[in-house]
Protein 1
Amino acid sequence: MEIAKLGEFGLIDRLTKDIKPQNESTKYGVGDDCAVLSYPNSEVLVTTDMLMEGVHFDLTYIDLEHLGYKSAMVNISDIFAMNGTPRQLTVSLAVSKRFTVEDMEQFYNGLRLACDKWHVDIVGGDTTSSYTGLAISITCIGEAKKEDIVYRNGAKETDLICVSGDLGAAYMGLQLLEREKSVYYSQVDEAKRKGDKKALESLAQFQPDFAGKEYLLQRQLRTEARGDIIEKLRAAGIRPTAMMDISDGLSSELMHICKQSHVGCRIFEKQIPIDYQTAVMAEELNMNVTTCALNGGEDYELLFTIPIGDHEKIQAIDDVRLIGHITKDSLGQVLVTRDDQEFPLKAQGWNPLQ
Amino acid sequence: MEIAKLGEFGLIDRLTKDIKPQNESTKYGVGDDCAVLSYPNSEVLVTTDMLMEGVHFDLTYIDLEHLGYKSAMVNISDIFAMNGTPRQLTVSLAVSKRFTVEDMEQFYNGLRLACDKWHVDIVGGDTTSSYTGLAISITCIGEAKKEDIVYRNGAKETDLICVSGDLGAAYMGLQLLEREKSVYYSQVDEAKRKGDKKALESLAQFQPDFAGKEYLLQRQLRTEARGDIIEKLRAAGIRPTAMMDISDGLSSELMHICKQSHVGCRIFEKQIPIDYQTAVMAEELNMNVTTCALNGGEDYELLFTIPIGDHEKIQAIDDVRLIGHITKDSLGQVLVTRDDQEFPLKAQGWNPLQ
């Protein structure tokens, strides 16, 4: 169905009609000039992110349901990165004429799946049109006790540096999707060049080759915010001294923490967690897997520092790896390679403005 | 300067470097995964809006400083429309390559001018790239005591219906801008057709004819949120029973209030406040000025209902006009014309999805 047929209010009604707020802090959701929230006993955390078609996502790779899921998760991840609990979310969409009501429903399905996973209420938004493509802006609101909030600026000398999960897989997933896309287009081009209609027709059934690389795809297309790690840290009585989520690559994020905390760091190549599939894919593409893990974006794992006294506690937590420690500011940011050479860390993270 | 030269973080640093939060409720602004706010004694209001180039604004009409100002004001207006006080704002921008660092600074100048006017802190955002044009998403956060919040759904039979300022001028301002744009392009086309290079060159100095219509332009390009009216209502001890801001046209907004409050309404054409310049422009364009006032968008005046007992109090307030009253739901939404005919109100407000 064409979106114009429903109009703005009809579409919003349809997308939000059975949203029922779950959180005590949500006093009023969709349907007025503002949402109304109540946080008498904690601080309010607010984060916002914008995703543009062609820049942040390519709809040849990702369907709208996964995109909705990912859009919500990357914002939810920012709340966890402050050691908070996500509670509400608003979503603004600008859509061009090629999108249908059903497309928007798919997007909302994904969005709601992600929100339901972390008990987040969709409390408002805006749906409008765009000349070209799809633009998504999400704001997520959460809460934390004042004393629990973890900023980027609290890392201290001798603190241990930890990351959750493994790194570089989301980036390798993107490389894989791009490779298969270019395989497809080169076959189309060749069929056109030869005037081979039959080959062109059969390319409609083109099956990209993802065998053995499912994990990479999952990491690129089904982003998960690591609220489970936050819960485990709380249960273990560990309060990180500094924390952020890894959206632009480990190097870049670590440098943010060092800069804002006025400290240096020393991380060890051999400690950086890398999945087997990530390593295989890097080899296939003739890329250095450590470079991918250091600079590949979109893993949305947590990077955090903890007091050295929490060493034993952290080792009891699954899926968290110690990768180094914080040093004096004057020692700079250093990577120690497998063969014990030292290099200054460089932020080569993904830059959407270059 | 090209934006790519600064990169994302460089640009954000430059745009936000001397932003100093003013509000007690702003605990931490730009620079971490989230902003941190504190609202122990009031409810938190959240509103969000997305503005797309070519759909919501045309950069041939509006410069980036005015656009920044307007983008902030339309969101601030939503907080006032709940009878709240705006406090914080986040802004996400997606910009194509044709925009420079200086352009972004201009946009931020306007944004900050609007925020300063209402003591709103810019606490975060996102700056990224877009394939085509400029996309703006703003979230505004405010506060109100629970008992002060005014929803759309509180209008009661016999309540009086009021609007601030005058209506239709922003829409007429847009018509004026579009007329002058088409005059310009028709002269360009004619000069090209004739191959008249001299005429083409002199068109670079084309001066649109806005004489005597400055107010219309101001209403279109320099949107003001009516916080002054909110202050006056408070000072007079009037608490509206229902309220919203008029962004899509009086008819459309009044129907929202009636629908959500389960009431009808009766408004009087002769009471609708219209500026002299609006009336003159409508006549020039052969348009019915009442239709413009009912359906023209972007005035950002306040529409609200008050108990009939506040009749005298409201008449003592400058720049507020009584336009009718609330009736039983079964009586529908009625416009009484100057010659005492009755028509059902229709929402022909601006629909960005049609």
Note: Residues 145 and 190 of chain A are 61 Å apart (CA to CA).
Protein 2
Amino acid sequence: MADAIDQDRTVADLGEFGLIGRINEVVTATAPGTDVLVGPGDDAAVLRVRKGHVVVSTDVMVEGRHFRRDWAEAVDVGHRAAAQNLSDINAMGGRAQWLTVGLAAPADLPAQWALDFTRGFAEECATVGAGLVGGDISRADQVMISVTVLGACIVSPVLRTGAVPGDVLALCGRQGWAAGGLAVLGRGFRSPRVLVEAYRRPEPPYDAGPGAAEAGATAMIDVSDGLLAEARHLAEGSGVTIDVETAAFDVPEPLVAVGQALGADPMQFILGGGEDHSLLATFPGGVALPEGWVRIGTVGARGELPVTVDGGAYEGPTGWTHF
Amino acid sequence: MADAIDQDRTVADLGEFGLIGRINEVVTATAPGTDVLVGPGDDAAVLRVRKGHVVVSTDVMVEGRHFRRDWAEAVDVGHRAAAQNLSDINAMGGRAQWLTVGLAAPADLPAQWALDFTRGFAEECATVGAGLVGGDISRADQVMISVTVLGACIVSPVLRTGAVPGDVLALCGRQGWAAGGLAVLGRGFRSPRVLVEAYRRPEPPYDAGPGAAEAGATAMIDVSDGLLAEARHLAEGSGVTIDVETAAFDVPEPLVAVGQALGADPMQFILGGGEDHSLLATFPGGVALPEGWVRIGTVGARGELPVTVDGGAYEGPTGWTHF
């Protein structure tokens, strides 16, 4: 394998330029990207833009906050870091094309970790035809990963601000699975494996964003911090009230099992969980939802609360904040 | 002032969304950028691209490695973080247009620090007409800043790979000043003030990159890690040898003074120093150098050493590496 190196070597052993060279080898072998006029290795990358615009987003992941090296393999952290950023372009109704990574790491980080991370990252990018085109590395006390993704929309971007009363609220993709997996890991368990895997490697519905845009979605967001928290962003951005109907959800069996094992209502994972990077969108009332989308609520005129559940206030946790 | 807040409040006191809201206020008041179709606040920004391409680069700065909060005010760290990234676009012969910032910080970071940083960052961007269009914040043990900059080239990008024997090597901008300032700060001094200021707020020659591209520069790089280290990148990228002539430099008086005070050869600051973000480029032998550029050496056929100084090997430090 191109990226297998001595397990004892650290990033400090390889040195800055040695590490960058190995990372570039992994990227070139996995997902070099298309329309790359100048790739990694110069002061900047140069990318051909065919649509007259770029869509750009930046996300930060910090060791101990967003991932733990003992809870996920480096290759999984790579998949997740890419997925969370690719999902931001998806949520605009766009397709991701290029990514850059700023990586800060302790000197004693195994070099293999950095290469496995890169491989997972590049593999996830390759699933949508995107490529890693640049980045920077530095020493730090803990691993920090800052990813910037660039892409383009097929039709007009779908913002958070366009929902109007009478729209329906719809969801696409798994929801609550990653939160269930995280809860399991937090208690020291490793099963149900399907949930732990969902946390380690989310599977965002990458085709659903452009599809929703073409179908006329009025507002859209990806669920990274929690379903109700994201619904609130849509409601406040659009100046409406959103009601989520719990009866619309089929609670999947693994979440039922985890709820029983941990003594928790499995709906909490669905309503408060993030990191599956499902998509939440509003569509005009008369529109047939595209394949994969499920109606989960309604949009009404602005009221006392931005978000209600089954018509009333919700008392449980609605999502995650970073400070 | 829009960004003055209670000095005792921390980023944790403001909370993630409170802090983002205040940061957006500072950005909007300072440097919102142009051709921004969708600005901060959605899943991604949308930017109008007029040249059919984008130039993109990412740089990481870590507290304790790239800056110390007791050595520079937050506003200066902001200027420097922006300058180092704007300079990467300059080094391609391009002009920067948009930036995103990934910021990780301890919960007890004063919120005012984050806002002052943002103000300095946005002010530096405004000097070239660029704007901050997005980003992300997270909690971490130390301050980490990852910046991505996007821009466009006026003519073809100038790479590191185009130097040929017979070219002349030229420099534009202050060189060695920031290294002198850093040496002073490292010894616990605060003067010569002009050098300390040069370290705190580099002044890259932002017009010189596009000017060099139009004048036919064959290769170019910005000096962020050290003059000889960057010369080596050019030489290795182009498959040539570069000779730097020390007689070409006028050693500025403040560097002479620091050299005497610290018992160091001031040429060491010039040859090994980075972070002024001067530009180093090669031009065909017959070309009249654009204003501000100074001839400092020659390009020859590939030899035993990629870089020589006055025709021979150089024994001093040539630059900085991160691991």
Note: Chain B touches chain A through 73 residues (CB under 8 Å).
